[in-house]
Amino acid sequence: MADAVIAGVAEVPYRRHPARGTTTESLLAGAARRALRNAGLKPGAIDGLAVASFSLVPDHAVDLAWKLGLRLRWLMEDTNGGASGINMLQHAVGAVEAGDAEAILVLAGDRLTGEAFADLVTGYNAATRDFLAPIRFGGPNALFAFLTQRHMARHGLAREDYGELVIAQREWAARNPGAVYREPLTLEDYLAAPIVAEPLSRYDCAPVVAGADALIVTSGGSRRPVAVRALTASYNHDQQEGDGLRTGLALAARSLWEEAGAGPEDVDLAIVYDDYPAIVLVQLEDLGFFAEGDAKRFVAQTVAQRRLPLNTSGGQLSAGQAGAAGGLHGLVEAVRQLRGEAGDRQVDGARRALVTGYGMVLYRHGACTNAAVLERVR
Amino acid sequence: MRRGLCVSVCRTCGRKVFPPRVLCAGCGGASWKRERAGHGAVEEVTTVRHAVGAGGEVSVSLASVRLDAGPVVVAGLDGQAGPGDRVELVAVDGAPVGRRAKIEAKD
Lengths: 378, 107
What we know:
heterodimer, A: about 375 residues, nine-stranded mixed beta sheet, about 35% helix, B: mainly beta, five-stranded mixed barrel, three-stranded antiparallel beta sheet, about 55% strand
C-alpha cells in the first residue's frame, strides 16, 4: 500500500466576532474549500471524511457529508477536543495506507455562541455536570489554576516565566494575519492583566473564537507532500488520580522519537497544544525537550532567547481557540511551515516538526494526549 | 441538598475513588460501597473572577482538597481557607463543599 501523506491544509481566519450568518457548517465548508484548493484537488476526489466539532449537534459527520455534497466510502467523527486533530490524522493515515480511502478530508471547527459555550462548559461530561457545575466552577480555568499552582511550586516557576512564553507566542502572532490578538505584549502588560482565577490572567487562557481548520490525507501525488513519520497517543493514562503535571506523552516519548528517527533536538519547530502556558511546559518536559525539573532554565535559555520556534501561529493563546479546531490548528500550522507556506512567519528551512494534542478534562485535568512528528518529503 | 460527602470503595480491592466509576481501575471489580469522607487538607485554592456564561465579574472560591480517604476533589469553599488548612466537607447537590475545620477530627 502507498504511504499516506498530507497533501494540503487550510484554516479560515479566526474571528472573535464572526460576521452575521456565520455558522459552524459555513466555517467547516470554508476550510474544506480552501484545503481542496491548497491540495490541488476537486471535491469529487474526496472519498473519506473525518470531523470534530462541538457545535455540529444535532448533526453528525454524515449530515456534514450531505451538506458538503461529498460521496464517501470512509467516515468518522471525533469527540476528543484538543486531541481530535492528531487522532483523526492517525485514523486517516491508517485508512489510506490500508486502501480504505484514497483522499480523506479532515475537518474541525466551531462557532460557539455565548449560551452554547456556557452549556458546553458546564455539561462537558457527566462528571462536570454532576460534580463541578454545582459548585459554580465556571469552566476549566479554575482547574488549570490549580494545576499551574502545582507546576509553579514543583519547579520554582513564577508568573514571569509563563509570561515569557506568552510574549514569545504573541511575537509570532504579530506575523500571522489569521490570529485574533496580534499587538505586541510586554511583561508589564502581562503581569498587570486582570486575574481570571489566581494565578491565571486573561493572557493565560486561550480566547474563544469562531473558526475552522482542514487537512487532506492522500495516497500520494501531492505537490509538496508532508509525511507523518511518527504518531503516538495516550488516553486516560492516570485515571485522573495524578497531579496533571505528567501527561501520557511521558510514557510514549521514547517510542515516538525512535519511530521518527529523530529527537527533540532535531525538530525545526514545535507546535505544542497551549490552552494554558503551564500545559505547554508540561508536554515539552514529557517529550524530553528539557530534563525533568528544568522548566525554569528552559524558559530562560530557550523560550526567552527564541532558540526554538514554538507555536509559530501565535498558538491558541494568541491566535484563538476555535473549539474543536484547537486540535487541528497545530497540524495545519506545522504543515504550512514545512511546505514553506507560512508567509511572514516562515521558519527558514523547516523540514521536521513536532505537533501535540491535549484535551478532554474529565474532572481535574486533560485525559487525552497525542503527538506527531511531521517531515517534508522533498 | 446537603448531606455527607462519600467516596466509592471497591469491595474487591479497596481502591477509593471520587467521582464514582463503573469498574475499578485497579482490579476490574464492579461492586462498590460508599464511605463517608468528611475531612481533608487543602492543596490549592483559587478565586474564579470570570465564569463562563456569568456575564461579568464573579467571586467563587474553590479548593483542590486531598481527602483523608485518598482521592483529590475539587471543592467549593464556604469561607476562607488556604493551602495546608484542614477542611470539613459535605456534599451540596452532590458536589464537595469544604469549610475550614474548627477542631481536628477524623472520620
